[in-house]
């Protein structure tokens, strides 16, 4: 289960992080510097590859609480080519969808941005 406040996501069993990368069986802080992600052009294929490697069949991508974070079209295409269900939403909605899918036993992953 996840809870959200501005600038903070609380992950059960992990604690509080600013941005989160979650995958089946685990997760933690999402460090944008690893792949050079920025608000624009946004979440890139390299950001989601570890989620798929962990066995995700559904991926939730948050665009931030003010929808500033973009998702590259190449990322959506890559996930579609892999046969992965994709949900892109404002962060509060993304957390709600993630929790619903996780509670239903779906092998869900997420990239969650807690601010703008």
Automatic annotation (TrEMBL):
Q: Where is the protein localized?
A: Cytoplasm
Check the record and name the Pfam families matching this protein: DUF498
Q: In terms of domain of life, where is this protein from?
A: Bacteria
Q: Mind telling me which InterPro entries this protein's record contains?
A: AAMDC, MTH938-like_sf, NDUFAF3/AAMDC
Question: Gene Ontology terms, cellular component aspect?
Answer: cytoplasm
Keyword match Transcription regulation? no
| Key words of the record | Cytoplasm
Protein name in the entry: Mth938-like domain-containing protein
């Amino acid at each position: 289960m996840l809870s959200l406040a501005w600038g903070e996501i609380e992950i059960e069993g992990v604690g509080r992080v600013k941005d989160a990368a979650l995958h089946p069986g685990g997760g933690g802080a999402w460090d944008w510097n690893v792949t050079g992600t920025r608000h624009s052009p946004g979440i890139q294929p390299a950001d989601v590859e570890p989620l798929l490697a962990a066995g995700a069949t559904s991926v939730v991508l948050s665009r931030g609480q003010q929808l500033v974070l973009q998702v590259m079209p190449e990322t959506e295409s890559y996930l579609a080519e892999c046969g992965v269900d994709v949900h892109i939403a404002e962060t509060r909605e993304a957390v709600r969808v993630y929790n619903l899918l996780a509670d239903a036993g779906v092998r869900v992953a997420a990239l969650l941005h807690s601010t703008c």
